[in-house]
Predict the structure.
Amino acid sequence: MLREETVFGPIHSRRLGTSLGINLLPEKGKFCNFDCIYCECGWNRDGLNDRQLPSAEKVRTDLENMLLRLQKDNVKPDSITFSGDGEPTLNPEFPQIIDDTLALRDKYAASAKVSVLSNATRVHVAEVFEALRKVDNPIMKIDAPTNALVSKINNPAAGYDVTRVIDALKQFNGDFILQWCLLRSPDFDSSSPEVVNPMLDIIRMLHPREVMAYTIDRPTPAHNLSKITPEEMRRLLQPLIDEGFVVQIKG
């Protein structure tokens, strides 16, 4: 499900409400340093037709035009969301684009939150972190507590280390949202104690202001994947809820 526009929607998001999307990756391709088995955009190898990243100028122009149209139609988005066909922080103009987006939000859609869905692989880069600190909702992904399981679920580019990601996320001092996709395959089960217990410990260590736990909802490139029900997720995360963590669960 590749986005063929730089600015798209608004769409209904399970987690963010009425969401106006921004795709900082190619309009007709996929560009990511993960290759997740559950990605609704498909495998990286299937998205090689376009490698052109949109410039900050194009994003600014397209977003302003869209916000003017929505204002005319009296449509008020809940979120302006950086998602798209891959990892948004890979766009080299990401910091400038964030500044432009915040200015346009303030001008045309003051009630909207600016959200970034990221796999957290570039939080250790100073200018990326500073840009993420400016947005309302930096939503950072950790799907597994070990490099071995991350390899099975996310297929990261060479050099990924979950410990480095955790250390980088500590810079937020808890002022971020952690997202965790739980699912099953013939090779692993996100609901097993060997996954859940260390994940809960990671969450306790980072103490994000919110945890978004969710499962697969759309067709996936890998076969034989199955959902984990909201009831199961609530049971698994109940210790965090009991400890006062804000936990959002979406089936």
